[in-house]
């Protein structure tokens, strides 16, 4: 970063990886310094209050509907994929040519679809309600997500490796690691956290994506980041949440050895893996509602 260039400020909720993590990974891999404003003390203009202010301020920029947002001098940009589209060429985590950048943006938008669907596994009815208020529907949604949607998205990514001959089946855009590879690492890590049984089974079919995940994790700056306190552990406030009752393992077998009907499999899985009490407590009472209509319930960090 040139000395005269303004500092990058990431605006995202404290205490969770969430969508902010896709931006953090880009900065970390590039070795470019940034302020993680939500994690700074209130006294330094940070904390959740700074994010709340951002969502209420009238501009002059386009006021974001939700974080993450990136402030860079006079520029304020929101929407994860748009932030990365702005940021990546400036910090060198995407090739320079337009075709590569367009390809990267498409893949990132598809990952955003996957992220939204992942969120819907625990919030299928309303974002403003707690998981505990929509558990039945979540079980149905997660079952289809795990059986159909995770394989579909991973197959998309696997095929994307084929359409990038330069990447040698290792990278999604161009000949090296780009921000979409970092984001792909993050969704694989997140899906493994949320659905460990299902992912063990599904990812056997996608060895190149497993290799991509491992190659990203081994990049020196990423490895250092993952081992640092800057990497917030996955938890039940983020996108990727581990509710054991939503993680379907190997297809349940009937007494005759055939596949159990999906409903039966869900019931079986729910009985077998009741959520630990501590985790339920961490997720809140389940009765509280968002303070502002339609808004997500916010964690006060
Ligand atoms: N499509 C947006 C989604 C933004 C979003 O949903 N942000 C969440 C946090 S991860 C939020 O707090 N939104 C506020 C709200 O929905 O009320 C993106 O990819 O950045």
Question: Secondary structure elements and their pairing?
Answer:
Blueprint: E1 8-11, H1 20-30, E2 34-36, H2 47-56, E3 69-72, E4 75-78, H3 80-91, H4 98-122, H5 135-162, H6 179-194, H7 196-202, H8 207-217, H9 220-226, H10 262-272, H11 277-282
Parallel strand pairs: 1-2
Antiparallel strand pairs: 1-3, 3-4
Helix pairs in contact: 1-3, 1-6, 1-9, 3-4, 4-5, 4-6, 6-7, 6-8
Residues 18-19, 66-68, 79-80, 112, 127, 295-296 line the site of glutathione.
Molecular structure report:
With 301 residues, this protein is mainly α. It has 2 domains: 8-91, Glutaredoxin; 98-245, Up-down Bundle (Glutathione S-transferase Yfyf (Class Pi), Chain A, domain 2), CATH 1.20.1050. It is built from 11 helices and 4 strands; from the N terminus they run βαβαββααααααααα. The chain has helices spanning 20-30, 47-56, 80-91, 98-122, 135-162, 179-194, 196-202, 207-217, 220-226, 262-272, 277-282; strands spanning 8-11, 34-36, 69-72, 75-78. A 4-stranded mixed beta sheet has the order 2-1-3-4, with helices on both faces. α1 (20-30) runs parallel beside α3 (80-91). The model is unreliable at 250-293 (pLDDT under 50). Glutathione binds next to loops.
List keywords for this structure.
Glutathione S-transferase Yfyf (Class Pi), Chain A, domain 2, mainly alpha, Glutaredoxin, four-stranded mixed sheet, globular
- Please trace the helix and strand order, writing H or E for each element: EHEHEEHHHHHHHHH
Shape: globular
Beta strand count: 4
Profile the largest sheet: 4 strands, mixed
Reading side by side through the largest sheet, how are the strands ordered?
A: 2-1-3-4
The radius of gyration over CA amounts to 20 Å
What portion of residues belong to β-strands?
under 5%
Note the total helix count: 11
End-to-end Cα distance = 31 Å
CATH topology of the largest domain: Glutathione S-transferase Yfyf (Class Pi), Chain A, domain 2
The residue ranges in which pLDDT falls below 50 over 5 or more consecutive positions are: 250-293
Round the mean pLDDT to the nearest integer and report it.
Answer: 86
């Amino acid at each position: 970063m040139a000395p005269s260039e303004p500092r990058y400020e990431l605006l995202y909720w404290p205490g969770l990886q969430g969508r902010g993590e896709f931006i953090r990974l880009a900065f970390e891999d590039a070795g470019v310094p940034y302020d993680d404003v939500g994690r700074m003390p209130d006294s330094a203009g940070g904390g959740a209050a700074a994010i709340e202010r951002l969502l209420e301020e009238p501009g002059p920029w386009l006021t974001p509907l939700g974080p993450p947002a990136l402030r860079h001098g006079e520029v304020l940009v929101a929407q994860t994929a748009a932030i990365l589209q702005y940021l990546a060429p400036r910090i060198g985590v995407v090739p320079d040519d337009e075709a590569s950048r367009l390809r990267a943006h498409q893949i990132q938008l598809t990952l955003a679809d996957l992220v939204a669907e992942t969120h819907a596994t625990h919030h299928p009815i309303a974002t403003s309600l707690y998981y505990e208020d929509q558990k039945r529907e979540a079980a149905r949604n997660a079952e289809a997500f795990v059986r159909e949607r995770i394989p579909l998205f991973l197959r998309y990514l696997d095929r994307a490796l084929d359409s990038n001959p330069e990447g040698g089946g290792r990278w999604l855009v161009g000949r090296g690691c780009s921000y979409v590879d970092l984001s792909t690492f993050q969704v694989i890590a997140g899906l493994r956290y949320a659905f460990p049984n299902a992912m063990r089974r599904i990812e056997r079919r996608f060895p190149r994506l497993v290799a991509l995940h491992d190659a990203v994790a081994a990049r020196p700056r990423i490895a250092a980041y993952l081992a640092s306190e800057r990497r917030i552990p996955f938890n039940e406030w983020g996108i990727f949440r581990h509710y054991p009752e939503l993680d379907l393992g190997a297809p349940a077998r009937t007494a005759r050895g055939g596949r159990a009907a999906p409903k039966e499999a869900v019931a079986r899985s729910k009985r077998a893996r009741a959520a630990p009490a501590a985790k339920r407590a961490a997720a809140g009472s389940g009765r509280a509602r968002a303070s502002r209509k339609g808004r997500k319930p916010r964690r006060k960090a």
